[in-house]
Each structure stands twice: as C-alpha cells, then as structure tokens.
Model the fold of this input.
Amino acid sequence: MAPPILILRDIDLSFGGTPLLQGAALSVSPGERPCLVGRNGSGKSTLLKIAAGLIQADSGERFVQPGVTVRYLPQEPDLSGYADVMAYVLAGLAPGDDPHRATYLLHQLGLQGDEAPAHLSGGESRRAALARVLAPEPDILLLDEPTNHLDLPAIEWLEAELRGIRSAIVMVSHDRRFLSNLTRATVWLDQGETRQLNRGFAEFEAWRDDILQQAEDERHKLDRKIVREEHWLTYGVTARRKRNQRRLGDLHAMRQARREQRRPTGDVKMTVTEGGLSGKLVVEAKGITKAYDGTTIVAEFSTRIQRGDRIGIVGPNGAGKTTLLNMLTGVLAPDTGEIRLGANLSIASLDQRRESLDPNITLSEALTGGSGDRVSVAGQNKHVISYMKDFLFQPEQIGTVVSALSGGERGRLMLARALAKPSNLLLLDEPTNDLDLETLDLLQEMLADYPGTVLLVSHDRDFLDRVVTSTITYEGHDGGGGRWLEYAGGYSDMLVQRGLLSQDAAPAAAPAAAKRKATAKAKSNNGRKLSFKDKHALETLPGRMETLQAEIGDLEQALADPAFYGRDPLAFDAASARLTVVTKKLARAEDDWLTLEMRREELDGGSS
Done:
C-alpha cells in the first residue's frame, strides 16, 4: 500500500473542559475509502474539520503530504456572498482546474448555475456544494453527510460518480447502503478514541457488537470479582489485618478501575404513545388525481391501507410525495377520485424540515408545550428531564434554545415530540435525516413493534428495506406525469419487481422485514397443504443453514488473521467475496425456512 497522504495522530480536543477527542487518529492513503462512524456528538464532524485544517486540535499531529489537494463538504454549506451558484462552484477551483467540469456537475445535479443562493432549498445547497468539491478532482475528499437532503436519483448518481473518481474519500454518513456500497475501511469514533477496521462498513456492525460484548463480559467478570473481595473484606479482614492489607489495597484498586471503566454511550429509549385502536381499514383511495398549473402530480392512483401496514413513499424531489401523503391523510382533497379514511384515527407526524420547531423556545418548552415541567408519555407523566435523558439530552440542556441544537439533536427532539403524542397512524417525512446509526436501529425496532400504521417518506434505501411492507414509487418518467405504483416489500423488492435489480443482488432482508414477508406469504397460502417439495425443504433447510453457518465461521476466522492479507492478497479477496456470497445464501435459506415454518404452523392451526 502507498504511504499515507494525510495523517492525524494523537489528536486531543476539549470544549469547555469536556474532552471530545482523546488520542484520536486517522490515516488516509491514495485512493483509500474509509468511513468515519460514531454516535451523534462523538466528534466525527470535528475530526473531519481537523483533517481539513479548519480546526486546530489542542494537541497532536496533522500531516498532509506536500502538493496534496484536500476538499471538504460541510453539513451546512454557506453560499452567502456569491452572486449565483456558478460563482460559488467556480470559487472552489484552483489554477489549472477545468471549469467545464463544474458546469457538467451542476447540470448532472439538476442545477443551471444561475440560481440565487438565497432562494435555494437545503437539497439544492447540498448539490451546489457537492459540485464545488467534486469539480477540482482533489487528492482527498472529506464528505460530511453528503446524502442529506438528496433524493434517491441524486444519491445513486453520487455513488456512481464517487466510484469513478481517483480521489481518496473519507465519509461521514447515516446512510448504511451508501456506506456499504462505497467504503473499504471503517474508523469507529467512540468516547474520543478511534478504532479501525480494514474492511468496509458492511462488516462494521458485527465487529463493533463483538467489541462491545467483550467489554461487557470484562465488566461482568470484574463485578463478580469485586463481590467476592467485598465478602472477604466484611468477614475476613479482621483476623488477618496486617497480612492482608495488600489484598485490601487490591480491592480498592479494582473499585477504582470499575469506576473508570468506559461504558458504551447511552441509548435512546423510544416509547411510542399509543392512541386507541383504529379501524381495520385506515385509508382507501380510488382513482385519485391532483394537478397544479396544468401539471399532473398524481394520476388515477388507488390503494387500500389497513391497520398495521408500513407504507414507504419514494420518488425524486418535486415528484409530489408530500402531495400524495397529504391526500392519503385527508389534509388535501383530490381533484377527482375518492379518499375514505378509517374510523378513530389519531395521527402523529414528523416534519422533514423541522419547521414546527420554534428556534427561539427552549428544549423544555418544545417538549412540554410551554406548560409546566411534565410530559405525558404512554399514559404516564414523566418529568421533562427524565424524558430528555431518554433521547440522550443532558439535564443542563433544559434551557438550551432550539436554534443552538445540532442537526442530530433537532432530529431527536422532533422524534421525542412526535412519539409523545397519542397515535395509531404515524406520518414520518424523512425521519432519518441527521440521526446516527444506533438511533436509527432503535427507531426501526420501535416501528416494528408499533401496533398502528406507518406512512413513511424516505430516501434511505436500507431504512425502507428494514421497515416497510410495501413501497409506493413514482413512475411518471415511464408513463406520463403523476404515475405512481405500489409494490410489495421494501425498496430492493421494488427494484427486483421492476427488473432493475436481480434477486441475487438484492440485500438480505432485515429480520423484522423477513418476518412480515413470511407472515404475509403464510396468510396467502391459508387452506393449502404443504407440497412434497415444501416438506422436503422444511426438513433439509436446517442442515443447509448449519453448513452455511459453519462455512461463515471458518471464513470469518481466516479473515480475522491480521497477517492474511499481507501473506496472500488474492486469497484474502477470494475469501471476502466468498463470505459475501455465503452470507446472502444463509439469509435466503433462513427466509425460506421461516416462510415454510410459519405456513406449516398456519395450516396446523387451521386444521386443529
């Protein structure tokens, strides 16, 4: 491997006396593609700014090889002071850079260049900033949440563009699919320190969970040892006082070690406040149409949404996702067609732009509505500080104004407000913006257990695959404006059904999604007997899954050898590729077995 062209070593940084980074490190070689992951507030953006030379660390070393060019994409681009978008993008070029590439990138990103910065949306500002950092084709790209506020076509275009450039890229993103598709190494920033995995993000979460489990095991062992020593201290020290003073000192040292032992950052505790049970039918749309100024936004769309459905709505910006959502919930009347809403609907919503947040009120006022210090959650009155802690806010933030919160904190605040409202229908418009991966996991689990119905607008492909039972997608470009179609399953299932993705290339379904699909398939086969082929599969699949699990274990053990790559790079690559194939085979086998087992139970239950 070529020597690094960017090195951060032993980086320390504190704000207000609280350490944010402690001995953090980052090394980037030519063409390398690491991602930087960690909880919101862990210091990812700060470390990226130190790498860009925008922030000076308290101590440590920053080295950039002479002649190397670095470009940084901030989370919130500032276009003020520029006459138009083109002037902003061209200002990022160095002498000798090709201005035609800037024009090409702007057009690819849906901008003309003559737009006034003051009138740009968040997504348009992000596109302009991407053109500015990509145009020079720098040696190193530092990208902070590059997919935020982009629609799916733009995200997929960006992936293709980044694959084709020579630059080394360091990425911070909450978009799992984006990271899995592009990264080759993962740097985990946790409680100020960095750990590196020399594999892409797709393998990070299992590696991280192993580390956290090992740490938990060590804590458990230390706790048990302390209990034993405290028992001895109570009953044995008196008779052997002089001889055992050293043992007593060891106990004090263990207690000190236990107090100082690092624990994982706290988790968000999400509890949704359930409204009364809605009717079985939630929404029925028959041939609804909507047009503005002669342009058809929704044309002859029909659907039937029942209690417990999780519906994803996807499409490019401007296609009319919000218009469709508003019609389905009765906020907006269709021009033609009929909308029928079910009985006893209690709706809670999460606004994409966080517009319902008054920037001048405090965190406490935003959660309580300005009335007292209590929040009603799931039928219980909680003190506002207790509810703040559930969403990782510190007690001292109770008087912090909304405008001073970070993007991730505003996202968590909006979730806290939405989940505290009694509901049986959740409307989530881009809920994943600015949320870290762990919070996304918890949101997914909460939605899986939510007894009501969910309508979700999102550009996060992985989140859609993990959450939704069907996907409504915009297809106006294929058959005229305003054409929307509904597909069973998540985003990847939709692509397979449209012939845009092969079944083998589709990501394995998340457990909750696989269970929902298996349940739906079992119901559709109610009253039928298992065929001989199904019975044979049900008997043989457990053995096949065991064989695949054993092969995965062998491959993971081989790949865990730090000397493997240096000894035989080709064999290492072959083993990595084989691990990907076998893991997908195991996921399919588990999904098939779960489907058949649930169908068998359904048939057995029906015949008893």
Observations:
- Residues 29 and 94 are 22 Å apart (CA to CA).
- The radius of gyration is 27 Å.
